[in-house]
Every structure is written in structure tokens, then in C-alpha cells.
Design goal:
The chain is mostly beta strands and 238 residues long. It contains one helix and 18 strands. The relative contact order is 0.20.
């Protein structure tokens, strides 16, 4: 029996009104190749002054151009200018879809229904972002949509130690000045899955982010140990 997981929706809304001539559509271009020769494409989504670009390698969001309150357009997502950047070993998951499991799994193992599964330890003694070849390091199959593109990747049973053949789908759409990212996954065995987009934002479009301010309305937070694994405590923010 297949089990369906709906793992998240992310909405990246506009901060200002769009101006200028209206443009809309989805286009595809060649972007590069992986070391084994697999072709990688880049999809460009346009809606008025807003533009998003996503590559099939890692289903990664390469750029997101938006106008500010003065209608000046800037790219507010960090990304590389070529395929070489995404292939380098120290790529910090720029804009990529990470999985099967985003964040760290302690000591590279988990227990499900009494069985322990071992995963690659690629972050000290822990497994990070799906292991040594997570979803950020594979080429996804792309299907253009009216306002976006849908990416699909099938992870076989036992991939990076995880049970079950898992089909992951990520849909990017750009409509009415809003970039929407929707995640779904289906598996033929009980498993764990936690998908997300690993974008880095710079809302000024250039320079450092030291003038940015972030407010989180929270009363508690989760302390972590030296390996960045939550301790289980829910500590008071105050």
C-alpha cells in the first residue's frame, strides 16, 4: 500500500507593487552537464517584473528577481553563475531541494518499527540533508506548467540507507507576484521524509545582510548539543 505525504508549502510573496510592461511565461535553456554527462536545464519563470530560475540539478532555485518599494529589481537569492559552482564540494546547498531528510539525523541512524537503519555520516557523526548523495546532487525530471515547472525524482528502496521507493515531487509556480513551492512524496514502505528548499536570502540584493532584522514571535526554542542535534528541551526564549 502506498502512503502519501504532503510535506510542505512555501510562499515567497512580493514586498512591493510590480511596475513596467507585463511579462509572463515559462522558458527552458541548456545550463550544463554533470560529470557523467547528464544534461542539466534551467527554467525561467516570469510574471511582470518578477523572475525565478530553477535548474534540474537538485531542483535548485538559482535566482529570484523582485522589485523593491522603489521598483528597483534585484536578485534576492544567493546562487552560482554556472554549473561548476553547484558541483563543487563546498557548495552550501544553495537554493537546492534537500532530502530525503533535511537537517541532521543523530549518529546517522534511526529506528522504525523496531528496525534500525544506518545512513551515511557526512556531518561528523551525523547524517546531514539526506547523506552523501542527497536530493540536491541528482538531476530531477522537469515538466513545464502554465505558471511554473514540476520536478520529480524517484529514490529507490535503500537509497542512502532509507527504506522504500520514494517518489518526490516539487512544484514551483510564479503567479500574481508570488513564488509558491509545493512538496509531495509517496512511498511504498513506511519511511521518514522531510523535504525543504535551502535558499539563502539577501533582501538588499547585494552586499552583506548585517542591516537585516528578523523577528520571530516565539516563547520557546530548542537548544542543540555540540553536534547541532536538539536536546529535547523546550527552553524559554526570555
Amino acid at each position: 500500500m502506498r502512503e502519501q505525504f504532503v510535506t510542505g508549502v512555501m510562499l515567497l510573496g512580493a514586498l512591493a507593487m510590480a511596475g513596467g510592461a507585463a511579462q509572463a511565461g515559462v522558458t527552458r535553456q541548456a545550463y550544463g552537464k554533470t560529470p557523467d554527462g547528464t544534461a542539466v536545464d534551467i527554467y525561467t519563470l516570469k510574471d511582470s517584473q518578477f523572475e525565478a530560475q530553477i535548474i534540474t540539478y537538485g531542483a535548485a532555485l538559482v535566482s529570484l528577481k523582485t522589485p523593491d518599494r522603489m521598483r528597483q529589481v534585484a536578485d534576492i537569492i544567493l546562487g552560482f553563475d554556472s554549473m561548476d559552482g553547484y558541483l563543487q564540494k563546498n557548495n552550501p546547498y544553495f537554493g537546492a531541494i534537500v532530502g530525503r531528510y533535511a537537517n541532521r539525523i543523530a549518529r546517522g541512524q534511526f529506528t522504525l518499527h523496531g528496525k534500525t537503519y544506518s545512513l551515511p555520516r557526512n556531518d561528523g557523526e551525523n547524517s546531514l540533508h539526506g547523506g552523501t548523495r542527497g536530493f540536491d546532487k541528482v538531476v530531477w525530471t522537469a515538466t513545464p506548467l502554465k505558471d511554473g515547472v514540476e520536478f520529480t525524482y524517484v529514490s529507490p528502496d535503500g537509497d542512502q540507507g532509507y527504506p522504500g521507493t520514494l517518489t518526490a515531487t516539487v512544484r514551483y509556480t510564479l503567479h500574481r507576484n508570488t513564488l509558491r513551492i509545493e512538496y509531495t512524496a509517496a512511498t511504498d514502505k513506511d519511511t521518514v521524509v522531510n523535504l525543504t528548499n535551502h535558499a539563502y536570502f539577501n533582501l538588499s540584493g547585494a552586499g552583506d545582510i548585517l542591516s537585516h532584522q528578523l523577528k520571530l514571535n516565539a516563547t520557546r526554542y530548542t537548544p542543540v548539543d555540540a553536534g547541532l542535534i536538539p536536546t529535547g528541551e523546550l527552553a524559554a526564549v526570555e
